[in-house]
Amino acid sequence: MSKKKSSKSSILPQDIEEKRTRVSMQLDAPKNTESYDNHNVFSSLGFDNRFNLEDFKKNFQIKVISSSEEEAIFDLIGIDAAIANALRRITISEVPSMAIEHVFIVNNTSVIQDEVLAHRLGLIPIKVDPRKFDYRSTAPNQETQISDTDTISFSLDVTCTRNPKAPDDAQPDELYLNRCVYSRDLIWKPTGRQTDQYENIRPVHEDILLAKLVPGQNINLEVQCVKGIGKTHAKWQLVNTASYRLLPEIKIVEPITGDEAKKLVETCPMGVFDIEDYKKTTKAVVSKPRQCTMCRECIRQPEFADNIKLNRVKDHFIFSVESSGILLPTEIFSEAIKIFMNKIDALQEEIESLAKADEPEDE
Predict the structure, then answer these.
(1) How do the pLDDT tens digits run along the chain, 363 residues long?
(2) Rounded to 5 degrees, what are φ and ψ at 223?
(3) Which residues contact 256 (CB under 8 A, 6 or more apart)?
(4) Phi, psi angles (nearest 5°) of residue 357
(5) DSSP, residue by residue, 98-132
(6) CB 178 within 8 A of CB 298
(7) Which 3-state string (H, E, C) describes 226-274?
(8) Which of 48, 193, 204, 242 has its CB 3.0 to 4.6 Å from that of 91, i.e. a possible disulfide?
(9) Running DSSP on this structure, what letter comes out for residue 44?
């Protein structure tokens, strides 16, 4: 009997290997979308499908495609969809931030109800590193006790008045002073040692409109920011969005030349195909596969249906993380990985404790 290989070297027939590693995009629906996790699913072919840590270490890669203060796009290569989705969900809902939780309204004579105003305030992202703060205690009789390590305070006091220098035919923005209340009107009130530790805590965006006033109306309030996670409320989300898609793979089976090549280039709305010289004529080539959205417009044409294969690579994820501006996208994803590793450690400890509990006691 031949010994099974522990490494997932490609010893499977080509059609089976494609079924294992690729999602096939057909006109009616994608096929081969399932993951083959069972270790002996290909045992009859002499292929050991079990997870191999050494193979994972060798194949796993993170490639940064682009990175800015607002968005990071990177590739995660060599992982299962379950892990990629776990990292996406943690990035959205479990990486903590500081957000307005308590609103104390002294006076509000605007047309906006107190609860609506409080909701708008809560959704303002606050530019401060949440890793430097602690969670506020939820123990009985301690919820109202605040400190400089778990709370950030702001005040807002805006009154609308008439502009004595405005002409009679002026627009409302010129007729009135402080007509609009913006996020920049929130004034940080440092407590304890916060003045020494932070230069200026402020909203990420200073032009978020909170309310519009007319002369005589006033909004006077104080707010407190505390640490929390998006799973509790969306206001604590550090990202606007975090998403991924599988890497597109487009193959041209037989050369597409001449007028058909031009038609193929014109058919694709995303500019995936291009034309290059080929044996005294021209042929179509795949020049920008990452731009493919799998709209399948190309294979809707009868002449291309059997000549173009559209696949997605099952273990190659194109990640996009868009930050709300509090932390860099790369920092947010790094924190998500740390949280994921802590979850794995906690699970391992729980499994070990259950295993010890099941062990028979020595007489």
Answers:
(1) 344 444 555 588 888 989 999 999 999 899 999 888 888 888 888 888 888 889 889 999 999 999 999 999 999 999 999 999 999 999 999 999 999 999 999 999 999 999 999 999 999 999 999 999 999 887 776 666 788 999 999 999 999 999 988 887 888 788 899 999 999 999 999 998 999 999 889 999 999 999 999 999 999 999 999 999 999 999 999 999 999 999 999 999 999 999 999 999 999 999 999 999 888 889 999 999 999 999 999 999 999 999 999 999 999 999 999 999 999 999 999 999 999 999 999 999 999 999 888 777 665
(2) -130, 155
(3) 264, 283, 284, 304, 307
(4) -65, -30
(5) EEEEEEEEEEE-SSS-HHHHHHHHHTSPEES-GGG
(6) no
(7) EEECCCCCHHHCCEEEEEEEEEEEEEECCCCEHHHHHHHHHHCCCCCEE
(8) 242
(9) G
Residues 320 and 242 sit within 8 Å (Cβ to Cβ): yes
List the structure tokens of 181: 């209340």
The DSSP 8-state label assigned to residue 5 in this structure reads: B
CA atoms within 13 A on the CB side of 167: 3
150's tokens: 């778990």
This prediction has a pTM of 0.86
